[in-house]
Design brief:
By secondary structure, this protein is an alpha/beta fold. The protein folds into two domains: 74 residues, Immunoglobulin-like (Sandwich), CATH 2.60.40.10; 210 residues, Glycoside hydrolase/deacetylase (TIM Barrel). It contains eight helices and 16 strands.
Length: 350
């Protein structure tokens, strides 16, 4: 009997020990799980949330997308810029493919590609045309006003019907005419560079509303480049629109008026007054280095004042083309008029 009692006691003690052990194991497991969960939560709170980048970088060209250069001249790649929504500026990751042989006439394609850190890719191309150099001088065309025959008639020969103008711009685009920058024109006159054949410069005097309303949309439609010589006291407010494809240069602020002797006031006003007028014009246009003489009238004093005020080129209304070595302050132009036919236009620019 005694032995049986002690056996029962042993069983009870064993059960208690087992129960305690199971309890300890359960406690450890549960506690361990929660602490791991806590750790996970802490980790995810401290690190950045993962966002999937599916937006490709934006890539844009520096300089002209349709560049034309003269045979034998130097080609300098102006490169491109790339920005990504996540990576920021990644211009240094742009890869450039395609060579331009400036010793061989033809059309070349330069391709720029870039990838962001999530492998989203973008590309852009530049067309480079190598052409024989300009032979017979650079035509700088001089336009003034425009009209639409459905609405009215042009009062004089300086008014050009807008459909005639559209035909001219369409022709320039079809023939891939090149519109050199003023910097290039200056270098050409200085004999530092050759311009390609089929180069042309378009200028529009006064900054008249008919130019902005009728001609500017056509210039943009055919991707031509134009310079508006603005009389800033009259039409400076239109120049503030800062339209694409249009360069705004000075036609004086308020010197487009006759003085006491019947000639333009640039010939009679005091030097100080002329300088003040030129500065006002520059300020209104946000800067200007190219000038167009009011009524085409100028003298030695006017030329010297322009030089002092930082103007690099000045245009008259004399007829002719611009050549290497032309006088930079007495530049001629080719006058466009209401009666100019498309055939005459082609002769003027070729
Ligand atoms: Zn004028």
């Amino acid at each position: 009997m005694k032995r049986r009692k002690s056996l029962n006691l042993e069983k009870i003690i064993l059960c208690i020990v087992l129960l305690v052990l199971v309890g300890v194991i359960i406690y450890i497991i549960v506690n361990n799980n929660t602490s791991q969960e806590n750790l996970k939560e802490e980790q995810s709170a401290s690190s950045k949330p993962e966002i999937e980048d599916i937006t490709a970088p934006e890539i844009t060209l520096n300089g002209n997308s349709n560049l034309v250069i003269a045979l034998g001249s130097e080609y300098t790649d102006l490169g491109a810029k790339a920005t990504d929504n996540i990576d920021g500026d990644i211009s240094n990751k742009i890869e450039v493919q395609g060579d331009v042989d400036t010793q061989t006439e033809g059309e070349y394609t330069v391709k720029y590609t870039v990838k962001d850190s999530s492998e989203n890719a973008s590309e852009i191309e530049r067309k480079v045309t190598v052409r024989k150099p300009l032979k017979n001088g650079l035509p700088v065309l001089m336009y003034h006003f425009f009209y639409d025959e459905n609405v009215g008639t042009g009062p004089d020969n300086n008014y050009i019907e807008i459909k005639d103008f559209e035909e001219q711009m369409k022709y320039l685009q079809e023939e891939n005419f090149y519109f050199p920058t003023w910097e290039e024109v200056e270098q050409y006159i200085d004999g530092k560079i050759e311009l390609p054949s089929k180069s042309v410069v378009l200028t529009f005097d006064d900054g008249d509303p008919s130019f902005y309303d009728l001609a500017v949309p056509i210039i943009q439609k055919y991707n031509a480049q134009a310079t508006s010589f603005v009389i800033s006291a009259w039409y400076g407010y239109r120049a503030a629109e800062n339209q694409p494809n249009i360069d705004y240069e000075s036609h004086s602020d308020d010197m487009h008026q006759a003085g006491a002797n019947g000639k333009g006031v640039m010939l009679s006003w005091s030097e100080d007054k002329i300088k003040e007028d030129l500065e006002t014009s520059k300020n209104t246009l946000g800067g200007s280095t190219i000038f167009c003489y009011p009524f085409g009238q100028y003298n030695d004093r006017a030329i010297n004042i322009l030089k002092e005020c930082g103007f690099k080129l000045a245009f008259t209304t004399k007829g002719g083309r611009v050549y290497k070595g032309s006088n930079k302050y007495e530049l001629p132009r080719v006058r466009m008029s209401k009666t100019t036919t498309l055939r005459e236009f082609k002769n003027m620019v070729n």
